[in-house]
Amino acid sequence: MAINSTSNDQQRRAFIAGASAGIGRALALRLARLGWQVVISSRRQAALDEIVAEDASLTPYLLARAADVTDVDALRTAFDNAEAEIGAIDTLVLNAGDYDPMRLDEFDPALFDRLMRVNFLGAVNGIAAAMPRMRERGAGQILVTASVAGYRGLPQAAAYGASKAAVLNMAEALKPEVDATGVRLRVINPGFVRTQLTAKNDFTMPQLITPEQAADYITREIDGSHFEIVFPKRFGWTLKLLRMLPYRLYFAITRRMLG
Ligand SMILES: NC(=O)c1ccc[n+]([C@@H]2O[C@H](COP(=O)([O-])OP(=O)(O)OC[C@H]3O[C@@H](n4cnc5c(N)ncnc54)[C@H](OP(=O)(O)O)[C@@H]3O)[C@@H](O)[C@H]2O)c1
User: Model-level pTM?
Assistant: First the structure.
């Protein structure tokens, strides 16, 4: 399916990696409804094509292009081709993610490897794919989806949390230099969102929201100037307070989470 090509300079264009499901899918549909042209990307072309076909009124605004974020060349090609087809992308959302909880008796280097490749190196690859073009234009923004789980170590999330902490640290490290180029680098830190990813959790998730609510939060702040888009707000603040606790108090709390 092809997007209506336009030379209108006011046209907003987004590329969302990790858009076939969950938060990325909801965000893509939300932006398309607002008139953005949205390139939806993930590994599964068929799943992306289904989204494009789902609602005929949105079909002209969506372009489905498969790419695996662990493959920097594939991602670069997808991004370059998308720009050649529809014009300059002003907003790149690096949202592809993977998760599995891990207890100590399941400690497995293969899980660390898998989650680091998608969650952390996938974000690295996305920045590598888009930054040269955005930098040349001196415009555009890159939003990387991390997680409040990246703030501090949480039980059962050693592999996932470490991959998201790496994303946050990388983005913080790059931001001052990126700022000087005219490009904006920002992070999205969701709390719990009901998706196939969190369906793996066997505990009650506090302040759980829907992907559509997550898309609302992101859309509201998509043109904001804050480095971080965090939601739901109360949960975000709670996790920020936990981040400030000394170890003795922090571990007293996280020990109780083991149940
Ligand atoms: N749900 C939550 O509570 C929550 C909380 C904090 C942060 N997050 C983060 O938010 C993001 C979206 O999560 P979600 O809950 O919406 O998950 P989801 O429903 O499982 O969606 C994940 C998306 O990533 C894509 N993906 C996975 N591996 C990929 C790869 N190697 N290359 C390209 N695309 C890939 C998947 O598509 P394909 O399978 O088609 O490739 C899918 O579109 C993730 O980064 C996640 O870590 C989620």
Answer: 0.97
CA of 2 to the centre of ligand 1 (A): 24
Using DSSP bridges, classify how beta strands 91-94 and 62-64 pair: parallel, antiparallel or unpaired: unpaired
pLDDT in tens, 34-92: 999 999 999 999 999 999 999 999 999 999 999 999 999 999 999 999 999 999 999 99
Q: Which of 99, 160, 217, 250 is catalytic?
A: 160
Q: What is the CA radius of gyration of the chain?
A: 18
| Cα-to-centroid distance, 197 and ligand 1 (Å) | 7
Dihedral of alpha carbons 155, 241, 22, 153, sign: negative
Q: Record the tokens describing residue 181, joined without a space.
A: 């180029």
Alpha helices in the chain (DSSP H): 22-33, 45-54, 72-86, 109-115, 122-137, 158-179, 211-220, 233-244, 247-256
Residues 185, 165: Cα–Cα separation, whole Å:
16
Q: Does the domain at residues 13-256 carry the CATH identifier 3.40.50.720?
A: yes
Domain coordinates of the chain in residue numbers? 13-256
